[in-house]
Every structure is written in C-alpha cells, then in structure tokens.
Amino acid sequence: MENSSRIIENLRLNIAELVDYAGNGHPGMGMSSAGLGLALWDILIKDTGNPDWGLRDRVIFSGGQGIVLQYMLHYFEGSISKEELLTFRKKNSRLPGLSEYRSYPTVESTTGSLGQGIANSVGMAIGLKHIKNNISKVYCVLGEGCLEEGISYESMSLAGTLQLDNLVVLYDSNKTSIDGKTEETFRDDMKSRFESIHWDYEHVENGDDVNEILNILRSNRTKPLFIEVSSKIAKGSLLEGNPVTHGKPLGRDVTEKMPGYDKNQFLQIFPETRKYFKHHNQKLKEEVLFRNKLFSVEVENKQMDAPLVVPEKGENNKNLTLIEQSSRIMNEFAGINNFLVGSADLSRSTKVKIHDSENLSKENYLGRNIVFGIREHAMSSIATGIYLSTGIKVVVSTYLSFSDLMKNSIRMASIMKIPNIYVLPMMESP
Q1: Which of 123, 260, 302, 336 has the most neighbouring CB atoms within 10 Å?
Q2: What keywords tag this UniProt record (predicted)?
C-alpha cells in the first residue's frame, strides 16, 4: 500500500487529538493498532450506504476501547462528519467510548466486557457457515485482556474444532494492560496455544507493516486464522509504551509533538490519506457489485428475524416428565420454525435437541444441533453471535446451577436485546 506510514501517522494523531478533546477515553489501543486497522479496512468489504447488507464482512473490536480507531477510519472514508466526530463520548452521541451494538450502524456488537467480542465473532462465523454465506469474513480485533479471559479459550477452541476458515483474529500485541506490562501476568506462547487448538498462526513483527499484514489476510486458509501483530501502546507519541495511555488522554503537551501536528488544523486529513480513501471508496463500490452478482440470493438479518410460529396444540402425554414435555414442544416448534439449539454437554439430560436434524460440524454446517462441549460461558455468547450475523434464534441449555458461568454473556445479550432462549432445568436428583 502506497503511503501507508503517512496514513498511520494521521490515524494516530487524530485519535490522540479526539481523546484530548473529549477529555477522557482510551487512546492507547487505537494508536498501537493503527497499522493493523488500516490493513483490515483495506480488505474489509462493506456497503457504506447499507450497513445491513447481508454479504458484508463483519468486524468486531473485542477490546471495545479500540472502537475509536473504527470511528476514525469512518471519518477518513467520509461516513462520519467532523461535526459528529466531535460528539465522541458525549451524552446521546452515536459514538460512545466503547463498542455499543448499533449505536453507530456499523458497530456489530456490544463488547465492553472483555472476551465477549471474540465469542460473538465465533458465533457470527458459525451463523454465516450455517446459512451458506461462504464469501463473508468475520474479523475480530483484540488485545491481551480478551486473551486472558477464559471465554476466549472456550470459544476459540470450538472455532478450531469446527474449522471456521471464515474467522480471522487480529491480536494487537502491545504487551500492556492497565496495571503495567503483561510479562507479570501473561506469558503464553501464542503460536503453541493456537496451533494446538487447530488455528493457523502468523506473527507480524512490525505492526506498521501494512503490506505484510495484507499478504497474510489475502492468503487462502482452511482453518481460522490468528495474526499476532506486535506494536506498542500509544505508538507515535512521547508516551509510547506507557500503561497510563490505556485510559487517559495524552494531553496537548504530548499530542502537539506528534508527527504531522498542526495547531491550525484540528482533526486534519492528510493529502495522502484523502487520496487513498477516494480510491478505496470506489474500489468498495466495485466489490459490492461483484458480490451481489456472484450471489443472486442475498439474505439480510431483517428477512430472517421472524417471530416464532406456534404449532397447533398437541396431545398432552401425562407420562412424560416436564423436561420431556419441553423437548416434545420444542421439536414441534422446530418443524415449522428456523432456529438452532445446543447444550453444554447435557443434551441427554436437558433434552434440548432437534430429533430430525444432525449435529452442526465441520463436515456439516447445516446441522441444527450445536455440540458446544463443556463451555457454558462461550455457549451463551456464541448464541448471541449467531443471531447477530443471521437473525436466527438459538436455544441453549445446561443445568440451572451451571448457568452462573453464563451470567455475563446473558447480561450482554439482554443489553443488546438479543432473543436467545435459555433452557435451565434443575439438576436431577441422584
């Protein structure tokens, strides 16, 4: 990519200026991940005039504080005006400081709680496979915080098992968290970790090498792809590498010393940036036309998000237990409704299984029974992701006593008004 270093400088400067202007926020991750963000934007296919376009690629900032980078990329492409950008983190703004589902039309999920975004992304990838959308990709940007959360292992392990080759994770490896350098808390070997759970692993040593990142993103894969991109928090500023920049403005005395700063041009767009995005916007229009021609049938979320059809009242068999009755009714609904079901290794106990359908697997993504394994937390968040990418409702189940592990993902689904269905029977007596 021509002039990528100059565009990256522009991203970092503007992120620092915007957070300074807001008086609070998270400049660090947006600045460290500017290189991977630019590469991602170059390859991401979306229709700027139709954010619900069914054949779009999905992007999730699982580290929700990085959403400021997405806003700035939208500003450069012309989707967000300067006037609206100045409402960042203000009351009633469409641009909150952390990712909030549909606060801005292209924000695909609420991800303020670390780890939820990657599990949502796994669900999105499963959903797209299930509806036979084999062209759209799911891109997830995360940092150390998400990878330290247990839900990341649960969900990414399942993604490897299901061979979700439409899922790409970009890891902003800046080795920094709020309390300091992560060498005291997080020393995992990423290559060993992800290859052991059936992912492809790549490492980019220079986080500003956009062309290297692009070459990896364009490569054909048969597994989910994890790209570790090394960088430094608040890169490009005098506070580069300083943990304080995670959640605090750099301050004007630091920002005005950054490359390209001009006191007479606030939130400026460099000529090189303007030239690139003019060409990029035209290329996007061509890509949208190409995908629409390639796929004659487009499925949009709204078309699939239909209310459940209630079957005619069946016979009440009093010899069945309550769980068995529930299963019978669910299967009657399944015969005339499109939804998926799954359990955390308890389908024989909770009876949450569609009898006339196969399991969803890497050999058969059309199956309606998802075998989640013992992954309660991920299960609930993956169900949310499936709905987000397809509008298909998901029924998940485990024992009520185990549902404590699901509370955070249930809360996040509730915040987003996602109609997941939870079947949580009491544990059977021995």
Answers
A1: 123
A2: Metal-binding, Thiamine pyrophosphate, Transferase
pLDDT of residue 253: 98
Residue 135 lies in a domain: yes
Q: Select from 145, 124, 117, 126 the least CA-distant residue to 60.
A: 117
| pLDDT surpassing 80 at residue 317 | no
Q: Are 46 and 147 within one domain?
A: yes
Tell me: the pLDDT tens digits for 396-407? 999 999 999 999
Same domain, 41 and 121: yes
Those residues whose C-beta lies under 8 Å from the C-beta of residue 164, and which sit 6 or more positions away, are 122, 125, 126, 129, 223, 224
Within 44-143, residue ranges assigned H as helices are 67-77, 82-85, 116-130
The pTM of the full predicted model, rounded to 2 decimals, is: 0.95
Q: Are residues 310 and 265 in the same domain?
A: no
Note the pLDDT of residue 302.
43
Residue 430 domain-assigned (yes or no): no
| Whether residue 319 sits in one domain with residue 215 | no
**Across 24-43, average pLDDT:** 98
CB distance 142 to 171 below 8 Å: yes
Range list of H helices, 239-300: 252-255, 271-294
CATH of the domain at 132: 3.40.50.970
- Pick the last residue of a domain from 237, 262, 294: 294
Exactly one of 184, 240, 376, 428 is catalytic; name it: 376
pLDDT more than 70, % of the chain:
96
Q: Confirm whether 378 is domain-assigned.
A: yes
Residues 385 and 120 sit within 8 Å (Cβ to Cβ): yes
Q: Are residues 235 and 149 in the same domain?
A: yes
Q: Is 184 a catalytic residue?
A: no
Residue 169 belongs to domain spanning: 4-294
134 CB-contact burial (10 Å; exposed 0-12 / middle 13-18 / buried 19+): exposed
Same domain, yes or no, for 21 and 140?
yes
Higher pLDDT, 4 or 314: 4
What's the pLDDT at 329?
92
What is the rounded CA–CA span in Å between residue 227 and residue 425? 40
Burial class (CB in 10 A: 0-12, 13-18, 19+), 393: buried
Of 396, 399, 421, residue with least CA distance to 349 = 399
Residue 295: left (phi > 0), alpha (psi -120 to 50), or beta?
beta
Q: What is the pLDDT of residues 358-407, one digit of tens each?
A: 999 999 999 999 999 999 999 999 999 999 999 999 999 999 999 999 99
Q: Which of residues 246, 277, 294 is at a domain's end? A: 294
Name the domain count of the chain: 2
